[in-house]
Design goal:
- The structure is a homodimer of 160-residue chains.
- By secondary structure, chain A is an alpha/beta fold.
- The first copy, chain A, contains five helices and five strands.
Chain lengths: 160, 160
């Protein structure tokens, strides 16, 4: 029977060539680690690249059946070309969420830091350390982008 | 029999709530007007909005079977939040192009002006006037966003 207090959350750290993802099970405000990884693709055109990301994420959603998506909000970036490209990838993620009727929680970078470390200006090291502590994944070898995605999933659980 | 000198081009002026589109038939460098319009949607969430645009464009592609997509490149915009939202919509258009195996020609705003008026700093009025002249649509009542989309389609024909 479905436990309505429990929810599977997919956190996504959007990127064009590397997209980190992390899946947690949220029970009230307790997060349990399920899986994580990075979708990495190098296609010739931007359109093919977005299609590859779309397919990779579709497969993930089909496999893990998340009930919510957490995604990082995009803020002012020094490199506008990169920012636009990441926003295009975000568009594909949001489209997939709507296609699968999944609610989306958008979290700002400072909110992610605040949620997992209690301090909005925390550095990357502190975020990594706290994600490991919260999820008990200190023995797992987790890539940076996937750690960020797990942090985003935890933040979505807290902020939803 | 398919005429390989002739090609149907769909031009898109990307936007989040209004997306202009224009379809031309390109024969060598001669453009003929086929159709144009604006997809206008107001959904509650950004994800649902992108899905509505996706569905609208899918229907257009199915109906008109374009062989190429022209889309405006995004440049520095004063309002970064708007720029990000337009980039997300662009991501959905590029995804659709890849799903339908359609080559994409991205054109900068100055290129569009250059292509249809011969002058990269031309104003909106000159662009509208020249699109009407090139396509012979002076008797058609065409919305602004659709005129831009037709100008983008003409530019894609020239720059491809």
């Amino acid at each position: 029977m479905k436990d309505f207090n429990s929810q599977i959350i997919l956190g996504i750290d959007p990127g064009t060539h590397r997209m980190g993802w992390g899946i947690i099970q949220a029970e009230k405000r307790k997060a349990t680690y399920l899986d994580c990884g990075v979708i990495e693709e190098r296609k010739e055109t931007k359109a093919e690249q977005l299609l590859a990301l779309y397919k990779g994420l579709s497969a993930l959603i089909e496999k893990h059946r998340p009930e919510m998506i957490g995604i990082e909000k995009l803020f002012f970036m020094k490199n506008q070309t990169t920012a636009m490209a990441v926003a295009e990838a975000r568009g594909v993620v949001l489209l997939l969420a709507a296609e699968n009727n999944l609610p989306v929680v958008e979290v700002a970078p400072t909110e992610v830091k605040q949620c997992v470390t209690g301090y909005g200006q925390a550095d990357k090291k502190a975020v990594t350390k706290m994600v490991k502590l919260i999820l008990g994944t200190d023995k797992l070898k987790v890539l940076d982008d996937a750690t960020d995605a797990l942090a985003i999933a935890i933040s979505a659980m807290i902020l939803k």
